[in-house]
Amino acid sequence: MINISVAMTTYNGEKYLEEQLLSLFNQTLKPAEIIVCDDCSTDGTQAILKKYSDQHLLTYYVNEYRLGVIANFKKAVSLAQKDHYIALCDQDDIWLPHKLQQCVDVLTEVERGERPAIAYSDLVFIDSDGNVLNKSFHDHMGLNRYAHNLETELFNNFINGCTILMNPAMRNLIADMPDDVPFHDAWIGLLGYTFGDVGTIRDQLICYRRHSRNVSIEDDANAGRKKRFKRAFEEFAKALNGKDDFLGVQFTIAQQFYKQYRQIIPADKRPAFEHFLKLKDSPYLIKRLAFRKMIKKNLL
């Protein structure tokens, strides 16, 4: 029997927290525990957590001082039962009822022995009022066009941390994550593809809340393509002005990861890192062509 711990972090999340918690309690596969680490909220977040800790298998911890996003996330993971699978959770999303069950089904299919493993899914974009903005993050970003593997993850992180379910072996690697890594989900993705196994779920299993009214994510395939073209044009313009930052965050994460694990990265995975990192100081057009080549090579 698989037991699941939900690891949630909170900070001033009173507006949407209750709705998220109710979606956890209404899962078809019930979590064994919900661990919440609150990063010194000053609103009503802690009162909501206390209310539900009296009624459900929810335990919350209030940090003595602000830890920040990554350190607080690592703390929540570390407090889960050692032999539990762990589902990562934001404070303001909504999980669909079958989210945990579907993640477990896929994760148990891909994991092998004691190897680290994760499963992640697509998601639906909703606005602050819960209205659907876009039915598929993967479609909107063009992520369904190509295979998801180590090479494609290096070039473009496609994993949202709030959709991840990890096995106990993966949980043991989280403690070594640097607190200054730009995105914890990209780091976890590299851990999975480098040292373990990864299950991709093309279905949308959570509603991800976007708060900015300035971000355009229309539920239209043509709009998504237009946005990607516009982004490429803006990147090219920045490069012409000497401000090339194409793949900048991806290079930062890959460098940190490769430096930390260089001695133990499997021989068959090392070339992917070396090829990608060699592009770091290349001109914009060379990096853009390498990106296009990667997409073409991995087209589905």
UniProtKB/TrEMBL annotation:
Domain annotation Glycosyltransferase 2-like: ranges: 5-109
InterPro entries linked: Glyco_trans_2-like, Nucleotide-diphossugar_trans
GO molecular function, a single term: hexosyltransferase activity
CDD domains, A to Z: GT_2_like_d
Source taxon at top rank: Bacteria
Protein name, UniProt field: Glycosyltransferase family 2 protein
Species whose genome carries this gene: Mucilaginibacter straminoryzae
